[in-house]
Write a structure and sequence with these properties.
Strands 4-3-2-1-7-6-5 form a 7-stranded antiparallel sheet, with no helix packed on it. α1 (5-41) runs antiparallel to α2, α1 packs antiparallel against α7 and α5 runs antiparallel to α7 (141-165). The chain is α+β, with helices and mostly antiparallel strands and 307 residues long. The protein has helices at 5-41, 47-54, 57-77, 86-92, 99-119, 121-131, 141-165, 173-209; strands at 223-233, 238-247, 250-256, 265-272, 277-281, 289-293, 298-302. Keywords: Cytoplasm, Cytoskeleton, Metal-binding, Phosphoprotein, Repeat, Zinc, Zinc-finger. One of its GO terms (cellular component) is cytoplasm. InterPro entries: DBL_dom_sf, DH_dom, FYVE_RhoGEF_PH, PH-like_dom_sf, PH_domain, SOS1_NGEF_PH.
Length: 307
């Protein structure tokens, strides 16, 4: 007799979960454990660095190995009597929020592996030694570390497929649909964590270019636009090259530094966006000219191409 489609998908979920737990075992019990042992005894890499590379992989491994995989296995053994997995996945979904921390840390972890492989030959040798083992299947540590990042989207795809193939009267329909909604929310949470991390990283780069001035560095700021601008001097009818950074709450009027050691720009003026007015000027000698007036002062500026 042909297996029902939804059972095939549920079995695929179980098989991929078993393979995934093996991968987590490799990350937590082999790579992390052995690198940690090396850090404690050989002092070739600080313990803190190893902890930062692997983030909360131990919690993720324990959850899947000790709870989700056994629950799923039990369900599939009992499928003919009780064909459902939706309720088990509902129990799983809230715990997937702990992936936010791992996903957010992923880029940093990969950077640390690269940096410490160059700095510490024994660290690099130990990783290379583990990668040669059969269990690694000729794949790098970085490749294995990507697996948890890709796991939540995989659950979402499998569960979507499962719900699609369920017969309308299936006793699992209500639970499976609710589980899919929960997984979707977790995936969104995970993506939002990545987007927020990228925003903060980009913001930090901008702050470094501005010389990390105390009154400007604020994690809640948002950069809207930046670019070169010409400052018009009415005194001698000339222009000089300046640079603007527009944030959600302030406009920074900067001068590019000639010798770029450290900061790239020097902030000449900070204008609050609140109460700021921008007015276009019709000037034949200087096209694309506009006035920016704020509480602090008024600037006459010229854009390059009317942008």
């Amino acid at each position: 007799m042909q297996e029902p489609e939804e059972k095939k998908i549920a079995l695929e979920l179980l098989e991929t979960e078993q393979a995934y737990v093996n991968r987590l075992h490799l990350l937590d019990q082999v790579f992390y454990t052995e690198l940690m042992k090396e850090a404690r005894t050989g002092k070739t890499v600080p313990e803190e660095v190893v902890k930062m590379i692997f983030s909360n992989i131990s919690s993720i491994y324990q959850f899947h190995a000790e709870f989700f995989l056994p629950e799923l296995r039990k369900r599939m053994e009992d499928w003919n009597r009780n064909p459902r997995i939706g309720d088990v996945i509902q129990k799983l979904a809230p715990f997937l929020k702990m992936y936010g921390e791992y996903v957010k840390n992923f880029d940093k972890a990969v950077e640390l592996i690269t940096a410490w492989s160059e700095k510490s030959p024994p660290f690099q040798e130990l990783i290379a030694d583990i990668q040669k083992r059969k269990v690694c299947a000729n794949l790098t540590l970085q490749h294995h570390m990507l697996e948890p990042v890709q796991r939540i989207p995989r659950y979402e795809l499998l569960l979507k497929d499962y719900v699609r193939k369920l017969p309308p009267q299936s006793p699992d329909r209500g639970d499976a649909e609710k589980a899919l909604e929960m997984i979707f929310m977790v995936a969104k949470h995970s993506n939002a964590a990545i987007a927020e991390m990228e925003r903060l990283q980009n913001l930090w780069v901008v702050y470094q270019r501005l010389g990390l001035e105390d009154d400007i560095v604020d994690p809640s700021n948002e950069l809207i636009k930046e670019g070169p601008i010409q400052k018009i001097s009415s005194r001698n009818n000339s222009t000089s090259e300046k640079y603007l950074f527009l944030f959600n709450n302030m406009l920074l009027y900067c001068v590019p530094k000639v010798i770029q050691v450290g900061a790239e720009f020097q902030v000449h003026l900070r204008m609050d966006v609140e109460g700021m007015k921008v007015r276009e000027l019709k000037d034949t000698e200087f096209p694309h000219t506009f006035l920016v007036s704020g509480k602090q002062r008024t600037l006459e500026l010229q854009a390059r191409y009317g942008e």
